[in-house]
Amino acid sequence: MIQPVIITVALVGAEVLREHTPYIPITPDEIAKDAYECYKLGASIAHLHVRDEKGMPSQDKEIFKEVTAKIKEKCDIIIQYSTGGAVGMSIQERIQGLENVPDMATLSTGSINFGDEVFMNTRAQMIEIAQGISKYGVKPEIEIFDTGMIDSALYLLKKGYISMPIHWDFVTGMLGGVRASKEALQYMVPLLPEGSTWSVAGIGRSQFEIAKESILLGGHIRVGMEDNIYLEKGVLTPSNAALVEKIVKIIEELEPKTKRRVATVQEARAILNLKTV
Predict the structure, then answer these.
(1) Which residue from 134, 157, 182, 237 puts its CA 20 to 30 A from 231's CA?
(2) Among 272, 243, 247, residue whose Cα is nearest residue 262
(3) Are 10 and 223 within 8 A, CB to CB?
């Protein structure tokens, strides 16, 4: 039986600037164009951050609304907002975009070092974000940067702030977080409640190797310039689409062994228990 692989593309993030790569999409038109190009290649989910007129990270709900509208004019890719924003933003700033009612939104269940700063998510803050996601009927994706965050998410589940079925995303390869390795996935995946779905994001050079392990272990994958700006060692990716194209080829190469292929948007919606459009 064929088990489709959902591809999420994380288009821009909050950390990568034009000084790091000239190819990062920043304006609403650029982000929407990138999302559409990735959709045509097989991406089912567009994970969105947005930028202000100066190209700096923003959680402005009106910018999210504009980007979402421009993407929907082009395709029916699943829209997933980040509630992480950028380090130092308030919770209300981080969750304001939920008013636009995207298909999905991320929920990080713990704090972690981001370079010399701390991405802060106290239990009270997690609950506030979870309540905001629930208020608008948005499906959460639980972002796991380290193994203890699984238990924090299970606490939210027990208390009724989130509900099954849960979709998880393991963000691996960040210094201070969980290692991007097969062994780490083999430890974490059995900790998830029955009925869960999960994907893996690899930071930097780990992106494609950990994606392969996820495919082999039955998970889904996330690629994109938020997490990795290189197509191969020393070669900047010219677009998010090039990263999606590369992972599609990897899925196709593994298909004789895994019996897996790229999911359509409709299949992704069914797998994730999202409403059809």
Answers:
(1) 182
(2) 247
(3) yes
Confidence check: pLDDT of 273 > 80: yes
Distances (CA, A) of 16 to 19, 22, 225, 265: 8, 10, 8, 27
In whole angstroms, what is the distance from residue 163 CA to residue 184 CA? 25
Of residues 196, 231, 218, the one with CA closest to residue 263: 218
Helix (H, G, I), strand (E, B) or coil at 38: helix
Largest alpha-carbon pair distance within the chain? 49
Q: Are 240 and 7 in contact, with CB atoms under 8 Å apart?
A: no
State CA 222 to chain mean position distance.
6
User: Judging by beta carbons within 10 Å of its beta carbon (0-12, 13-18, 19+), is residue 190 exposed, middle or buried?
Assistant: exposed
Helix (H) or strand (E) run with residue 7 in it: strand 7-10
Spatial separation of the C-alpha atoms in residues 23 and 4, rounded to whole Å = 30
Helices then strands, counting H and E runs in the chain, come out as 9, 14
For the stretch 133-162, pLDDT in tens is 999 999 999 999 999 999 999 999 999 999
Domains of the chain from N-terminus onward? 7-271 (3.20.20.70)
Residue 195 CB-density burial (10 A; 0-12 exposed, 13-18 middle, 19+ buried): exposed
pLDDT of 110 > 80? The answer is: yes
Question: What residues contact residue 241 under an 8 Å CB cut-off, 6+ apart?
Answer: 34, 37, 38, 40, 41
- For residue 165, whether the previous peptide bond is cis, meaning omega lies within 30 degrees of 0, is yes
Question: Which residue type is seen at 62?
Answer: E
